[in-house]
Amino acid sequence: MAQRVRKAVLPVAGLGTRFLPATKVIPKEMIPVIDKPVVQYAIEEARAAGIEEFIFVSAEGKQAIPAHFSAQPNLERQLEEKGKTAELKLVRDAIIPPGKIHTVIQHNPLGLGHAVWCAKELVGNEPFAVILPDDMVLSDVPCLRQLIDAHAKVGGHVVAVEDVAKDQTNRYGILDVLSEEGRLAKAKGLVEKPAPDVAPSTLAIIGRYILDPIVFVELDKKLTGAGNEIQLTDALSRTLGAVPFHGYRFEGKRYDCGTRVGFVEANVAFGLAHPEMRDRLRPLVEALLKN
Ligand code: G1P
Fold it and tell me: Is 175 a pocket residue for ligand 1 (Cβ < 6 Å)?
């Protein structure tokens, strides 16, 4: 039985240049999908999967992210005085208790591998989750929960995967698959952003990982790869002989909020899944498509 996963690392240091001017002052992760910042969906998914401790790998000027998950006594008092109980609950539900939320500043954007390495001391020697908040997943069972359940059985590294179009392999970490059993794909290799003609498969890693701490041994070496960045995929690939590596074909649908079109798609999809909104939204979307 694998050790329990208690901690999650959330790389949120990006400048969000694709979303300028919206991200001039507001961190990209704080832009809402429907009524919640993108990063709150990631935290809620992680909490629903049993994660207790959160490590943001962030950059200067993005204090709004930890502030969003801290108590806001003035706001809470005013809502209380006005009897706005439902709103007060929304505000309080987002709080992560002190001691369970940490921020590490990544001074230079040296790559995803480097971002994860920045959390090394806070993670310590135990399995941990990595969540890239840009990838949002709509599913019956939270995506991270699915990974943690799979990890409890097979241990090692377990990453969420899905098949992408052949011409998209150069946007993802891609698995070289040894064997498949149910939703699990055992990998014998992985490559970061291969061109379609050399990609070993179309099975792509999306932004959810359960990692064995052995990855830090490789990240410590600070070797650069694709795009001259310190790649998480490369570090994972160098641990392949030491611990098992599985891709898990998660149940659910992923939305890539890292692009503007994906962001709009996520808003429509999460709106159509929103219990208080879907009945009013659906006819509006249908009408829009007819015109
Ligand atoms: C990162 C990883 C890549 C992974 C992707 C998932 O790429 O390097 O392996 O497939 O996230 O979203 P990025 O999107 O940061 O370029």
Answer: no
Q: Which residue has the tokens 């709009």?
A: 264
pTM, rounded to two decimals = 0.96
Q: Are strands 128-131 and 203-211 parallel, antiparallel or unpaired?
A: antiparallel
Separation between Cα atoms, residue 4 and residue 46, nearest integer Å: 13
Give the separation between CA 200 and CA 190, rounded to whole angstroms.
8
Ligand 1 atom at minimal distance to the Cα of residue 232: 8
Q: Which domains does the chain have, with CATH numbers?
A: 7-290 (3.90.550.10)
CA dihedral 52, 56, 61, 62 (to 10 degrees): -60
Ligand 1 close to Cβ of residue 247 (< 6 A):
no
244-283 tens-digit pLDDT: 999 999 999 999 999 999 999 999 999 999 999 999 999 9
Contact at 8 Å (CB) between 288 and 186? no
Alpha carbons within 13 A on the beta-carbon side of 151: 27
How much distance in Å is there from the Cα of 41 to the middle of ligand 1?
18
User: At which residue do the structure tokens 């940490």 appear?
Assistant: 102
